[in-house]
Amino acid sequence: MKIPSIVAAIFALGGAGHAAAQDVSVQTAYAQAQSGGVLIVDVRRAEEWAQTGVAPGAARITLQDADFLDQLAVATGGDKDKAVAFICRSGNRSGQAADKARAAGYTNVYNVKGGMSMSGGWIDAGLPVDPVR
Length: 133
Hints:
Elements: H1 5-12, E1 22-24, H2 26-34, E2 39-42, H3 46-52, E3 59-60, H4 68-75, E4 84-87, H5 92-103, E5 109-112
Parallel strand pairs: 1-5, 2-3, 2-4, 4-5
């Protein structure tokens, strides 16, 4: 069985798998997304996406949408083993999204620590963003 590259990266950083979603750095999430090892899902609201932009290639699925899990299934092609890294403004909603996904049977879910806007987050780290209009 092949271990998803983000899982290998987490173990290399000293992380361990457990019931709660594992936090990953913005740098790890970006590198893994660029290599195709993880799908980033931005769970903020449309006005937040427009304010800051989103990570390149990120799926945009608002956590509060009633069909959140249906949209996630579309974004992952129905693959509940696909590595998914959730991101929001600060890390709170993304943690909730990761928990919701795990409860629905997704096995490789991660929370992007620092989100888009916090100190040490995506924007603070100088990582690229795609504008949303």
